[in-house]
Amino acid sequence: MKFAFINPNWSFTGSTYFGCPDPHVPLELMFAYDQVRAAGHEPLLIDAQTDKLTVKEVKPRVDVFNPDFLVIPTAPSYLFWRCPPPELRVPMEWLRGLDSKAVKVLIGPHPSATPAATLRKTGCDVALRGEPDQTIPELAGKPWEQIAGCCFNREDGGVHISPELGVTDMKAVGPLDFHNYNVEAHWHRHHVFTNDQGIGAELEFARGCPWACTFCNKTLFRNKFRERSVEALLQEVDTLVSRGVQYIYFIDEIFGVGKNVRRLLEGIAERPVKIGFQSRIDLWNEETLDLLGRAHCISMECGIESITEDGREELNKNCRMGTDRISELLIYARERIPWVQANLILTDKDDRRQICEWQEHLRSRGVWVSEPVPMFPFPGSPLYVQTFGASPDDQAWERAHHHYTATFDNKGYSDIQEQKPVPIEDLENAHLSHR
């Protein structure tokens, strides 16, 4: 069987998407590629965003390959499954433009949270819930109703919704060799705001998170915390360094949790590569922050969310550290790491004047502090259930989008978002009108 994995050339015009718009290594497709190959099938990977390809340029390559299965994600990179564009405009456009006779498979946050709506809107044949790395190859050899997370339209007109989620055994995920990826063209260095130059890349050491913060959209995919092999990860680092990579960003939900992080950092300290990641400052202390400095860390993004203990409690951060200690460690980290960022979220527990004072104090010591950003109630997140009192249904994305824009249209969005986002229905219907 043949599997074609396509990362679209993403566009976010008019979207409330607040992730990074630049290209990122499509690790979810690369892991699935290796699993398909290990199962004895033939895979093809095309990253249209990194290679700057249009759907018209990709279509001939797909036609020549003549796949049995065509796999497309509904969000750009595992890194942004947690904050995806709510609309399905891009996957809809690429499915239509490729016009393949293959079984059309969508993976990502939309199939995970609202598989029936994903099937209906896009016309895909399969919507896979959860992590698809090890479930995609099973499409070729198992009855679909026996595959974890597999959702599809039944012959009787109904929809089979798998009650399970796909979950990947990370110990079975061997090192990527990047033979199928244009590493040299991946110019983006994620979350680097200094003058460092050179080729960047992304890797994944651990997946999932042991916390359950209210705002975090990871419940229906990448939920349970698991680490990969340190040896496999260091082999990937060496491969990328041999291809000219000088900076690696770890896409882990929460880098620094696992018991093997110290061993990984000690290995990276011996290699000519810089690193960045997102984390919680309460996972670190002076000793481990010193180790980060020796491991050439140049970018550390920390979710603080609220400057008060009540605010962090409201967001279910489960933080056992006071604000003074948080400030102390952020400043200590900045003395060793060129870019340290503290992220804040809008809460009712924080006084605006106190926020400004805290921002000014940290900025005076070199720590970059975000303006408090609005929370999007992503379907599948605890915030969605708190806001709407029910689990996601087929109108979940529209409901969340309407709530978000109605709430923050006058209050302001993040400075990296469209300031006049287009309604989700208009974004998707604009695509449909071109059929």
Folded structure, characterized:
The chain contains 14 helices and 15 strands. The protein is an alpha/beta fold and 435 residues long. It has two domains: 2-169 and 425-432, Rossmann fold; 171-396, tm_1862 like domain (pyruvate-formate lyase- activating enzyme, Alpha-Beta Horseshoe), CATH 3.80.30.20. The strands form three sheets. The protein has a seven-stranded mixed beta sheet with strand order 2-1-3-4-5-6-7, with helices on both faces. The radius of gyration is 21 Å and the shape is globular. It starts with a strand and ends with a helix.
Radius of gyration: 21 Å
CATH architecture of the largest domain: Alpha-Beta Horseshoe
Domain tally = 2
Helix-strand sequence: EHEHEHEHHEEEEEEHEHEHEHHEHEHHH
Q: Tell me, what is the CATH class of the largest domain? A: Alpha Beta
The shape, in one word, is: globular
What is the overall number of helices? 14
Distance between the termini: 30 Å
Which percent range describes the beta-strand content? 15-25%
Helical fraction: 25-40%
Mind telling me the CATH superfamily name of the largest domain? tm_1862 like domain
| Category by helix and strand content | alpha/beta
Biggest sheet record: 7 strands, mixed
The main sheet orders its strands as: 2-1-3-4-5-6-7
Oligomer: single chain
* CATH topology descriptor of the largest domain: pyruvate-formate lyase- activating enzyme
Average pLDDT number: 94
> How many individual β-strands?
15
Which stretches are poorly predicted, pLDDT < 50 over at least 5 residues?
none
